[in-house]
Every structure is written in structure tokens, then in C-alpha cells.
Design brief:
Strand order of the largest sheet: 2-1-3-4-5-6
CATH class of the largest domain: Alpha Beta
Largest sheet: 6 strands, parallel
Number of domains: 2
CATH architecture of the largest domain: 3-Layer(aba) Sandwich
Length: 441
Amino acid sequence: MKICFIPIDNRPVCYNLAKDICSIDEKIYLLIPPRSLLGDLTKQADIKNLMLWLKNLPEVDSIILSLDTIIYGGLIPSRRSKETFSELQERANALKEILVEKNTKVYAFSSIMRISNNNYNEEETEYWKDWGKKIFEYSYLTHKGEDVNTDIPHDILDDYLNTRKRNFEINKLYLEWQKEGIFETLIFSKDDCAEFGLNVIEAQILESMGGKTKTGADEIPLALLSRSIDKNIKIYPVFTEPEYKNCISNYEDISIEQSVLSQLELGGFKAADSYEDADLILIVNNFIKKQGELVMGWETKPFKHQFVPPEKPYAAADVRFANGADNDFVKQLLPQIELKNFYGYSGWNTSANTLGSLLAGIKVKFKASKYNEKAFEKLQVIRFLDDWAYQANVRGKINIPCDIKDLMKPYENQLAQVFEYPANPQYTYPWNRKFELEVSL
């Protein structure tokens, strides 16, 4: 099976993770553009050469496509780009010609522009550092139908609203393509959602026009990768806190149970009616009342039950905290892992990020045509070193990106008792900030 995969940007979780997941089955050939062509925190993708790379691609079974990468140069540039609708439309039409020429299944997604509730402009326009919270408030109250008296300068508010309108019109253009049969699947992502907002209004309009929206963003290409692989797998979710499965995760607008079912549907799985009927059990380490957030220092009650692995194949989605693992859960999980029944762990960032990426690995491993156990172990070691060792523990001990090899060593030693992997992992910061860690084995 040959799959073309064009990610959002060059982060490890967008670029390397797709490669690591597909390597579990040696019969899956992932064609992915050179990393140098993709964008990062400050640089947009090389759109011209990405288009050329796609045009010259040999015959493939499917194309997994981040439309934001081709049209704007990436997810972050989609919020900053000053190009006009006409300029973007011309580029989009050129992309459409290539996709028609390829005549294969296209699984695509485009973002609904997010509205961050903070004065932090690292991933936003320059003026977000002064007016981000005010713009969020304007958006929130406007949707609620309340009177809004704002002191946001007119030129800034106009620029923001015009950018939103331009991106919204591009998304409506994709809906026209969908009607023409260009896409096998088209998803509009809802990133960093609240209950109300201009982005929520846009999602509702797109849905009324026949569009399909999903809460999440970075994991959606991986979920579409999963969807493109035709395997019938029935999964039964088991929540560690079943009485709280209706609670809503941070940065999302749906309950954790809805998030699980939504990711199952998008990834091409079936939700089993019972434990007995399932091919695989999805352990969801969910939160009590309010999800913790390690980056922000928001606490929640850790896992305090006795973990007993299912007798059936299982995987573990650790969503008790956003941006990292629950130490109490991992402490019980790790010593009980046996590779025969274990299908993966993830505790990456938001609940949707964790679920979508974990399910992609499950789909590839389940009845793989040519299973590579070493590749599976590599994937698990990277996830535990990143989501658990670094994000939940070491990251809080450093102030700036620095050498963390000594701090990571105790966690490496624990993992070496469960998995076989090279004894000298390397750690780098691809975007020169603490948020992303790249683990190289």
C-alpha cells in the first residue's frame, strides 16, 4: 500500500510520528515530502516546491492532505498570511488540477481559524500579544448575541475579521470541490474551541452546507491516515472514571466520551457494544470533573485505582492531563506491559491529539501485512519519553531549552526494562522552545 502524506508542518508529532506509525507494517510505503519543504514556527512551507513534489508523485493508493500547508504554507501561516482571497483561490485551483490528475482517494482537512483566549502571539498575529483576550471576548459575546463594547482598535479588529472571512470563504470553496467528488473525505478542524465564538458559528454554517467538522487539529492527518487503511476493528472504550466521561476536556467543546467516539468514527473504527464483542479494549484514563493541564499548572486528581490489564488486546489513552502523562497511571501501566496484547500508549497534548494518534498506530498494527515489532517498540519508547518522561516530569525542571540527558536517564532506565531500544536517545528542540521535544532513537 502506497500512501502520500502531506503534514501540517515539520514538528515531530506531525512529521516523524506518521513515519514511525507506518513503519510498524513494512508493507505500507509512506511517501512524505522532504522535511525542509515544510514550515515551522517562523517560516512557512515552500509551497511552490511542495506542489511540484505532489505533481511528480508516482501512483499512490491515497493522499492524506493538509490543505493549510499547500494553500497558506501551514497551520500557523493560515492565521498570519496577508494574501488576498483571489491569490489563494488561484493557488487552490492549481492544487485542484493536480488532484484531478492523480485520480486517487484524497483524505483532506482544513482548519477553522482558532481564537486563543490569551495575549500570547507566538503562533498568532503580532497584535495578539496586546489584544488576544479582547478579541476572544468580542468573538464569544458576539456569538451569544450580547452587546459588545470593545476598545480594540478598528484597524486591528478589521484585519482580524477580514482574515477570518477570507479563510472561511476558502473553506466554502473546498465544499464545492467535495460536491464534485474531489475528496474521499473532507474534514474541517475545530482547534482550541470554546462553547461560543465566531469559529463555532463558522463550523455550524459549514455543517449546514454539508461539511463535516471535528474537534482537534494536529492529529487529524493521522486519523485520516487511519481511515485510509481498510481494516474492520471493533473497539470498546473503558473509562477509568466512568462517572465523569461526560466532562469536557480543556481546549475542546465536547465531552471526553464524545471525543473518543468521534475519533473512532473518523479513524474508520467501529465502536463495540460490549467487552465481549470487541477486538480491542481502549483504556481511557480520563479525569475527574476538570482535566489537568501541566503547562498551566492546573491540577486534577491523579489515577488512584488498581490497574489490571485486559485479557484482550488493549491500548491506553492517557487524557487525565493535557500536555503530558499522569504519573500515577504510567507507574502502574509500565511494569504490566506485554507486547503480545499491548497496542500502544499516548498522552500527547489535547485529548483529541492523544486519541487520534493512538488509534492510527492501532490501525496499522492490527493484522499488519508484515509486522515489525522493533518499529512498534520504537514508537512506544518515543511516546513514553516525550509524553511521560519529558512533558510530565523533566519539562517542569527546566526554564529554557537545554541539555536534559541526565534528567531523562532515570526514565530511560525504567523503559529499558520493558522495551528494547538503542541505549543513547538524543533530545533536541526543533522549534527552539520547551513545548516540543524531538526524541531520536
